[in-house]
Amino acid sequence: MTCSNDKMVAGASLNETEFFKKQTRVALRNCGVIDPCNINEYIARDGYAALGKVLTEMSSEDVIQTLLDSGLRGRGGAGFPTGLKWKFAAANADDQKYVCCNADEGDPGAFMDRSVLEGDPHVVLEAMAIAGYAIGATQGYIYVRAEYPVAVERLQLAIKQAREYGLLGKNIFESGFDFDIDLRLGAGAFVCGEETALMTSIEGKRGEPHPRPPFPAKSGLFKKPTILNNVETWANIPQIILNGADWFAGMGTEKSKGTKVFALGGKIKNTGLVEIPMGTPLREVVEEIGGGIPGGKKFKAAQTGGPSGGCIPAQHFDVAIDYDNLIAIGSMMGSGGLIVMDEDNCMVDIAKFFLEFTVDESCGKCTPCRVGTRRLLEMLDKITKGQGTMQDLEEMKELCLYIKANSLCGLGQTAPNPVLSTLNYFYDEYVAHVKDKRCPAGVCKDLLSFTIDKDKCIGCGLCARNCPVNCISQTDYVAPGHKLASYVIDSSKCIKCGACMANCKVGAISKK
Amino acid sequence: MSLKSTVPFKGTKEQEQQLKAIIEAEKNNKGCLIPIMQKAQNIYGYLPIEVQKIIAEGLSISLQEVYGVSTFYSFFSLYPKGEYQISVCLGTACYVKGSGDVFEKLQQVLGIKDGECTADGKFSISACRCIGACGLAPVMTINGDVYGRLTPNEVEGILAKY
Question: Contacts of residue B97 in chain A, CB cutoff 8 Å?
Fold first, then answer.
């Protein structure tokens, strides 16, 4: 164990850095501290002690009550109370029930589940076995993305080790309780993060969602009572069992207990995973933990909730992050992606980016999502090309509300959120695209024009040599104080690649 | 020119035997179709209709069912991929840091579009949605090698290594 002690000492000094000081690590407590390929290191950090406690000292009702009291809510995004989910599944008697882990972390910009799976795979196995005991299931499935090969490898190894130690399999801790876990690999469909679609995919079919009710707690995988929790939710559970519901409920806000892991990315100095108590202000996360925005640029928005979420503008920079506050300002917690954007990001372009994603990932089963998101994308495309009208903006809003109200599953119901939130907070940017045919952030290529300031140009010709379409030529004009004639861009041929501007040494080229 | 559907199926007897053994071993497991298809793609590199027929027959299900699954999931490819498979991450974190420009540059340099393969079968490119390396954004992978904090100017130098 000397090896892991060394690492823990190193961990202690890390905790004094600005990045770690404000964090509270519960779900990530072992990540980077233990060797994930060695079950003994997990056990040395109280691993499988919660499972032992549950099997030898607690009834299944006790376990569920503890979770209910802790106030733990699903970390996958929707925030449904975990204990309640388990209670429903426990109440439905059946000869076979299932416990599933949603490790299909599809939100672009979120990677907390990958870190837990790669850094602490046993915590997921332990928590799933606890759930199996609580609801009366003997089989678990982990549905993990094929895009995470290291996570898959470590989970396979962890399952093998746990079986060897008798922590999975028959008669665990000699309690008479049997539980085993199998892996299922995803195959690259975002919609499979939705619970009913995920279960359909485990069944080996096209991962299309189906209407609820019946809820999975009643009829889920193979039509049997099933609970499905997200990786980060699982990672909290052994700690709740060991430290008690009150310990967990002591962290966070009134309705959102505990901590939440965010994947901090985008235009920020310190990127990476941060775990903070619920209720931490967004400003603190961005400015203190994240170290602010590089290059002295201005904060424009933080995007949370991935393609289902929204953009939080500067006016809400002080919002205390929890489930309900984020929904109140038109975004959502989601699985925890937190992408910071600065003044160089165009919000119309961002909305279009997310719509491209949902159009691509819509499974096509229901019309509002399949057709609606496509129409929405077409309108956004028109706007970014400078062909939009004010009527389009009105119609977009109407279409958004229609898609939200009528789609079958969470993907469609939340797909319009990036559009609605940017329309709400950055309406003037949309208007600039529509009325002035201008992209204020200088992103939308069709609305850009590059010009050379003839008095700043020193005539070196670097821009012309780097232009892929040869649309830059020399003029006869020699600026006062310069020796060579300046250059000019033929905007009718320009493809707006920006190569000239990137290569100009004197900053004579500007875009607007 | 892309290779898309112009390559004839070149499966060998050994590959077929290997696949049939896998089908035999798995066919009684619940929900075995996707795991079998994943293994089949590992054997052949892609899932041409000929391979899908073997799977359908082995499991006594319709080809339509197999085809429905293979076209639903982006992981399954009906066309052969290049010797070096390039994926550019267009997830949010990479996108806001300019992976779109990197992707465009790659398409320009190789002369192919998303999902296509160069005529010599060497490179294929695809856009992917987040490989969870957002701290290194923008990111691309070439056969599992990860290149992070990219700029479009580095693209040619990286390709030259292969």
Answer: 266-267
